Each structure stands twice: as C-alpha cells, then as structure tokens.
Amino acid sequence: MLGKYTDNVRLKTPLIHNITNYVTVNDVANILLACGGSPIMADDQDEVEEITSICGGLCINIGTLNHNTIPSMFKAGKKANSLNHPALLDPVGAGASALRTQTALDLIKDVHFSVIRGNISEIKVLANGTGGAKGVDADVADPVTDKNIEQAVAFAKAFAEKINSVIAISGAIDIVCDSKRAFVIKNGHPVMSRITGSGCMLSAMTTAYITANPDNILEAAASSFVAMGVCGELAQEKLAKNNAGNSTFRNYLIDAVFNLDGETLERRAKYEIY
Predict the structure, then answer these.
(1) Nearest partner of 123 among 114, 132, 111, judged by Cα
(2) The pLDDT value given to residue 84
(3) Amino acid 220: pLDDT
(4) Number of domains observed in the structure of the chain
(5) How far apart are the C-alpha atoms of 53 and 47, rounded to whole Å?
(6) How far apart are CA 208 and CA 6, in angstroms?
(7) Which domain holds residue 114?
(8) What's phi and psi for 115, nearest 5 deg?
(9) Does residue 58 contact residue 76 with C-beta atoms inside 8 Å?
C-alpha cells in the first residue's frame, strides 16, 4: 500500500525549498537527494518568496531560528499557501524557549501546513499553547507507548481536526494521522536518536513525499515515516556487522534511503491503522 508513494518520489524528483537549521543542513540536503528529491536552501527575506515559487514544496524547520529568518518563514509559508504548494512545519524545540514556542504558534496561525512533524512534546506544546521539552528532545514524561497509544492517537486526531493538518509524531512509536485515520508505525531503531538530524532529515523527506503525492498527504507522510524507520533498521544491521559507531550510522542511513524501493518498504513495514 505505502510502497508506491516512495517510488513516486523518484519518478517525480520534487524540488523542495528548505528553511532549516544550520546544525543539520548538509544532512537534510543529502537525504533529499537520496530519497529522489532535490533540495534548495534559502532563508533570506529578499528571495524566499521567489525560491518557494519555483519549488514544489516547502519545509520549515525552526531549529536555529533567529530574528532574520523568522520573517522569511512567514513570507515563504504564505507564498506556498498562495500557490497551493504542500508545506511542512518542524517545530524543533517548541516549549524549550518563549521565542521558539511563540514563533511556532504564530506560524500555525498564519500559515496552513499540510503536515506538522515533531516529537510528542513539541506537538503537545502546539496543541495546548504551552508546555515543556528537554531541549529539542521529547520530555521523558511524554513518550508514546503501547499502554497509552489509544490516548495518544485520540489526542493527535483531535489536533489534526482542529488545524486541518496531518499530524506526524515521531518517537519509538510513530503516529501519523488526520482527523479520521492514524498510522501507528513501529519501524526504526534506538540508535537513530544517537545522531543529530534524524528528525530534520525525516521532515525534509516527508516534504518530498507529500510534494510527489499531493492527493494522498496522509499516506505519503506515513510512507516517509516507514521508509525512515526501515532504513534505520537496515543501517543498524550493517553497523552491527562492521562494529562501527554513530557517525558511520548516519552515512549508512543515507545510503539505505538511497537504495530503498517500494517493494522493500512493503516487505519490512510494521504499522497498524487506527
């Protein structure tokens, strides 16, 4: 079911405008190339509307936001909306500072995002208007588990309905949902949390997937999450064979995305629909 959305990215090579953070910008560009997309990085106010206009989708990541890039995010987001381009918001660290929290809240008020992708703590901050996070990581009190999965799905569906966006929550168990259906995904490996940028890469990949599959935003986003999880597993299998570390894992992860096809995704996918 989900494999075709992965294959479509390679068939269509979507051009993605990224306003992302400087910690992971190189990995974001490389993961887009690996999955079949094409990246442009641009965050100056004087060009973001023009760049967004020539792209197919927009990925906004607030990981290293500042007073120069914040206006660019709003300009690019509104231009993407005017062109009916898919847009994704990654509210990195929402809840960790007042600036991050307010910027993320203002963005979802002024710009419609096809997908909002974050960890459970970040998504709770956006839904509730307040909250906390452990820096840019999820709070240890928040994790989605088998015991609270139904409650977490209900929360995500309600927020999706409220803002008319697909909500994509990443963690040991992923939830990707709209107001009616939720994909609960259990692919991935814990070592993925030991590299900087796995979430940023996932956001960029998801933007490419929804841009290549604009009529199936939910399924495309879920396919991206499964793809990243499967590739994390494949990278870890290779890592274990070679007795390597987390830096090598990052390279193996990008390689796995580069070599992934829809058939492999379907064979290894682990998800349920709620």
Answers:
(1) 132
(2) 98
(3) 98
(4) 1
(5) 10
(6) 10
(7) 3-273
(8) -140, 140
(9) yes
Dist. CA 186–CA 272, nearest whole Å: 9
260 within 8 A of 6, measured Cβ to Cβ:
yes
Chain segment 64-122, per-residue pLDDT in tens: 999 999 999 999 999 999 999 999 999 999 999 999 999 999 999 999 999 999 999 99
Confidence of residue 138 (pLDDT cuts 50, 70, 90): very low
Place of tokens 């600036």: 99
Dist CA 103 CA 108 (whole Å): 9
Mean pLDDT over each residue of the chain, to the nearest integer: 95
How far apart CA 265 and CA 195 sit, in angstroms, is 22
pLDDT digits (tens, 9 = 90+) for 205-241: 999 999 999 999 999 999 999 999 999 999 999 999 9
Cα(103)–Cα(125) distance, integer angstroms: 12
CA dist 162 and 105 (Å) reads: 13
pLDDT computed for residue 140 by the predictor: 44
Q: Which residues pair with 192 in a beta bridge?
A: none
Identify any residues that bridge with 133 across adjacent strands, giving them in sequence order: none
Spatial distance between the Cα atoms of 256 and 274, rounded to a whole number of angstroms: 28
Residue in the structure block whose two tokens are 């168990």: 173
Q: Are 39 and 18 in contact (CB under 8 A)?
A: yes
Joined together, the tokens standing for residue 167 give 């909500």
Q: Helical H runs in the chain?
A: 3-12, 25-35, 48-54, 69-82, 98-110, 120-128, 149-163, 198-212, 217-242, 246-259, 262-268
What CATH number does residue 212 fall under? 3.40.1190.20
CA 165 to chain centre: 13
pLDDT at 133 over 70: no
Q: What are phi and psi of 228, to 5 degrees?
A: -65, -40
